[in-house]
Amino acid sequence: MMTDPIADMLTRIRNAVRVENPQVEMPLSKVKRGLAEVLKREGYIWDWEEVDKEAANLPVGQLRLHLKYGPNGERVIRRIRRVSKPGRRVYSGAAAMKPVLGGLGICIISTSRGVISDREARQRKLGGEVLCEVW
User: Fold this and answer.
1) SS3 letters for the chain?
2) pLDDT by residue (tens digit) across 2-54?
3) β-pair partners for 91
4) CA–CA dist 57, 67 (Å, integer)
5) What burial letters (b/e) apply to 30-44, b meaning 16+ CB within 10 Å?
6) Contact (CB, 8 A) for 66 and 23
7) d(Cα 100, Cα 69) in Å, to the nearest integer?
8) What pLDDT, in 10s, does the model give residues 72-121?
9) What does the alpha-carbon distance between residue 117 and residue 126 come to, in Å, rounded to a whole number?
10) What's CA 87's distance to the chain center, in Å?
11) CB 80 within 8 A of CB 107
């Protein structure tokens, strides 16, 4: 039984980037879909797609991320870290959010309006649960 599916997603991405896989698959959920969309919008991955569960012969649908690397194979995602965990939830208001690495990285926030980056949250003046940091 998996207790933290978001941490599982981040670990799969971290492991795939380490061995330079072009894509990675994981079980699908709405929050994971939101995380993938934010990663795409912010330029950390090329694209994502849903793999139909009937086509893959699996009990649940799969989310496939197409990872992004530089022209010489350098990693776009250098670190990806879970902030809010099941045992310790971390919440932040829009005014309290600081840029990650002086704006070089992002925080991904789960708000009442969906999963968005910290830049969008500050712009929209929304707070929420800080899911992870990426740089």
Assistant:
1) CCCCHHHHHHHHHHHHHHCCCCEEEEECCHHHHHHHHHHHHCCCEEEEEEECHHHHCCCCCEEEEEECECCCCCECCCCEEECCECCECCEECCCCCCCHHHHCCEEEEEECCEEEEHHHHHHHCCCEEEEEEEC
2) 899 999 999 999 999 999 999 999 999 999 999 999 999 999 999 999 998 88
3) 129
4) 24
5) eebebbbebbbebeb
6) yes
7) 21
8) 999 999 999 999 999 999 999 999 999 999 989 999 999 999 999 999 99
9) 11
10) 19
11) no
Q: What is the CA radius of gyration of the chain?
A: 15
Show me where the domains of the chain are located: 5-134
Residue with token string 């709405």: 30
Determine whether domain 5-134 maps to CATH 3.30.1370.30. yes
Sign of CA dihedral 67, 52, 117, 109: negative
- The residue assigned the tokens 């699908």 is 28
Residue whose tokens read 């950390």: 44
Residue corresponding to tokens 């995602």: 77
